[in-house]
Each structure stands twice: as C-alpha cells, then as structure tokens.
Amino acid sequence: MTGKFKLTSLPLGATPFLLKRRQIPDAVxxxxxxxxxxxxxxxxxxxxxxxIRDELALALNAHVAEDLRSWLVEDICACAQWLVDVSGCxxxxxxxxxxxxxxCPKFHVDSxxxxxxCTYHGAGTEWTDPNTAYSINFEEPYDETLVHHFPAGSIVIxxxxxxxxxxxxxxxxxxxxxxxxxxxxxCIDPR
Length: 191
Description:
Elements: E1 17-20, H1 26-35, E2 42-47, H2 52-60, H3 66-87, E3 92-99, E4 114-121, E5 126-128, H4 130-137, E6 148-149, E7 155-159, E8 171-173, E9 183-190
Antiparallel strand pairs: 1-7, 2-3, 3-9, 4-7, 4-9, 5-6, 5-8
C-alpha cells in the first residue's frame, strides 16, 4: 500500500479503517513476553519521520536487548512511514504504551484526524458500530458477537472525530488485560 494508496480515493465516510494484517515473528513474541514488564509505561517521541529511529533507539536502549530494540525501532519506523504516506503529514507523534489494565474501558471516538495503532503484545483493540457502542456504554443488552477486535500484530489506521479523510470515526475501546500480564500498544498520530 505504501506510495500508491491515497485517502482521497475513498468515498467520504465509506470505511472506518485501513487494516494491514500480519503476524509478529515468533522470536520477537518470545522476547516481548520476557521483556514487556521491564518497559516504562510510556515512551513518547514527536518528530519528523527521518529522526524517529535515533530517538526511539535512545529511549529503548536501557530497557530491551539489542535484537528486540532493533526490531521494534525498525517496525515503528515502518509504521510511521505508512501513516506519513497515507496522511501526507510531515511530523508524527509516536507513543509506545505499556498497560497493566484496561486504559479506555468504554467505546469512544478519538479526537484526532487519523491514528495508527498496533498491539505488539496482548489483546488487540476492540471495535464496533456506534449503535452497539452506545448500548454497551449505557449497559443495555447487546449482542457480544457485534464486538470485534483487531488481531495482535496487525496495523490499523482509522479516522477520529476530526477526520476529513474519508475514514469515518471508529468506535473502539481497550480490551481487558489478563491479570499479571501487560499489553504493549503502539500509537502514532500525524502532526
């Protein structure tokens, strides 16, 4: 999709997200499982895409082994470049967040034009249509099969409440985190 895809080719409001399905390599999953508890709760960088590599490597240096650090830095840079290609932005805000519990338990729409998410470790973000979101948020009866989740490792770009891109806002929430485990989530916003 890199280089050829343009959001302007989407009919306005046609789709809630772009999804790139993929599996995180087994060796990386093993390293993440063993290392996730060592990471700080939040690593953040706001910069031009060309400078992400150095800033991330420095931020991760004291927390993860070199092979995992190299893989994470390269993958985050590739994700940032995909968002740059899709959005046309010149700067990005990157957050790598470790969560020990459900950060956003209610369905909501982010107050951004676009956002990229990738769950490196743990359950993927849950999403649904607005009617189901309202039912769940107000604890009314709903059909659990109407709640979907993005597979861990997949990369999703979606519209927020400020979207003018053709990606309609996505109703989503954080999944439940297994007790004694953590979730590692990449979040990138265009600036």
